[in-house]
Amino acid sequence: MREHKNFWDRNAGRYDRFMRKDRAAYEEMYAMIRPVVKAKTVLELATGTGLIAKNIVNAAAHIEATDASAEMILEAKRDNQSAKLHFSVQDMFRLPYADKSFDVVIVSNALHIVPQPEKALAEIRRVLKDDGVLIAPTFTHAGNSFTGKVRAFFMKLAGFPLHSRWTSEEYLRFLRQNGWAVRKSVDLNASFPLTYAECVKMEV
Fold it and tell me: How confident is the model at residue 70 (pLDDT cuts 50, 70, 90)?
């Protein structure tokens, strides 16, 4: 995980500029997330510079936004205007929160870049209330167009950590296989295909 964290530390300052080209897809995503988090306690994992958290915090009761990269969290804190939003450095595989602490957990564009994403999902299940909602939008790189494949190749050369290549269908199947019922999914048009997934815990 060390080289993975270093990549994000190195690129924290330019992350927002990189994400700007997907602004339209993200605006669409914020509009879907806001009603789900309305008056709820929220945990966001892999928040990066806090783009999502800052855009939905007015709807939520409180957001704990976390990332493994200290540099990303420094960037996120820089212009945080909300008392309802708290940023901290955390490891998504070993979270410091009690069982069933949150109404909603958001993990955006992270499950494909970590080794053993199923372990992250198990930790999310632990901290999420039984009637809670997991929001897990993820770039599904295996659905790339030719230009997307070229872009992915150059990102890999730059050290971008990509551990799982899913199509949208494969990603949703992965979530189901790990105990999540997908109650809503939308494919958004971004630099890479972006699959928005809203899930609840499957009955065990």
Answer: very high
- Mean pLDDT to the nearest integer, 161-185: 88
Q: Rounded to two decimals, what is the model's pTM? A: 0.82
The Cα–Cα gap between 182 and 191 comes to 24
Say how far apart CA 166 and CA 161 lie, in whole Å. 14
Whose tokens are 């309802």? That residue is: 84
What six digits make up the tokens of 129? Answer: 């209330």
Per-residue pLDDT for 115 more than 90? Answer: no
DSSP reduced 3-state for 114: coil
- The size of the chain, in residues, is 204
CB 185 within 8 A of CB 168: yes
Q: What's at 104, amino acid-wise?
A: V
Q: Is 156 exposed, middle or buried (0-12, 13-18, 19+ CB in 10 A)?
A: exposed
